[in-house]
């Protein structure tokens, strides 16, 4: 998909939260979202993601890394679902073994993609979670 | 000069220093962020220098905490994968395998090679970005053949 063909989802006013402890990944994931016109925030671990929601912030989409200090993605996803957060949560992580992936999905993910995240993978997430209809 | 820049970039792919992920990042560059890849690369080298330092210190202590070393290398591999640093990523994978096998000598040997690849990539990318800035903006990012 060329730069000119990328959808601009700014009109849909979608919001997203990037949850990742790695600064390089934070930067890339935020850029991917911005290129599609999706406003986004970033936090460094699962606890900060939970705290953000406790303070009243809400997002349409959460991109959740798995391995993070303090509170990992599996724990954070479980906690957010227990809190009643209905945002779509996509797990984004480097290759996890099947058991880890299953545990992560069962924590309450709506989708899962392996890193590195690309525009195609992000569009796949958005399409699967009904944020974007491919024409 | 654009041609020179393109040739240098092609060689980085041909020699296996970079993989397709680097191209994905270049395609994210736009007028708002024309130097996005250079900025992310700078972030990567700053972060990875910290990780190298942590691993160096851990190895110098002599007692091999393979779990801790593996955790550091997991982060390093993650960053390297995200920017397309192919050779560095390969060494990270090898290191982690040696950690899982509890092979201290393998870890030391691989880490030495990893630092070499990391340093080489850094120099080559610095040179590439310097030339790219001098050459000015190009129309579109092109995938290498």
Structure summary, number of beta strands of chain B: 0
Helix and strand sequence of chain B: HHHHHH
Give the amount of beta strand of chain A, in percent: 15-25%
Main beta sheet of chain B:
none
User: Uncertain segments of chain B of ≥5 residues (pLDDT<50)?
Assistant: 139-145
Shape of chain A: globular
> How many helical stretches of chain A?
5
Main location (chain B): cytoplasm
Keywords (chain B): Cytokinin signaling pathway, Phosphoprotein, Two-component regulatory system
Protein name (chain B): Histidine-containing phosphotransfer protein
InterPro entries (chain B): AHP1-5/YPD1 (IPR045871), HPT_dom_sf (IPR036641), Sig_transdc_His_kin_Hpt_dom (IPR008207)
Q: What distinguishing features does this structure have?
A:
heterodimer, A: about 140 residues, alpha/beta, five-stranded parallel β-sheet, 5 helices, B: about 140 residues, mainly alpha, about 0% strand, phosphoprotein (chain A), ST_Response_Regulator (chain A)
Quick overview of this protein structure:
Chain B: This is Histidine-containing phosphotransfer protein. Chain B: Functions as a two-component phosphorelay mediators between cytokinin sensor histidine kinases and response regulators (B-type ARRs). Plays an important role in propagating cytokinin signal transduction. Chain A is of the alpha/beta class and 135 residues long.
What does this structure look like?
The complex is a heterodimer of chains A (135) and B (145). Chain A is an alpha/beta fold and 135 residues long. In chain A, 38% of the residues lie in helices and 18% in strands. Chain A starts with 14 loop residues before the first strand and ends in a 7-residue tail after the last helix. In chain A, helix 2 (46-54) runs parallel beside helix 3 (73-82). Chain A is built from 5 helices and 5 strands; from the N terminus they run E-H-E-H-E-H-E-H-E-H. Chain A is globular, with a radius of gyration of 14 Å. A 5-stranded parallel sheet of chain A has the order 2-1-3-4-5, with helices on both faces. Chain B is mostly helical and 145 residues long. Chain B is built from 6 helices and no strands. Chain B has helices spanning 2-14, 20-26, 36-60, 66-83, 86-101, 104-135. In chain B, helix 3 packs antiparallel against helix 6. The longest helix of chain B is centred in the C-terminal third of the chain and has 32 residues, at 104-135. Chain B is elongated and about 50 Å long. Chains A and B meet through helix 1 of A and helix 2, helix 3 and helix 4 of B.
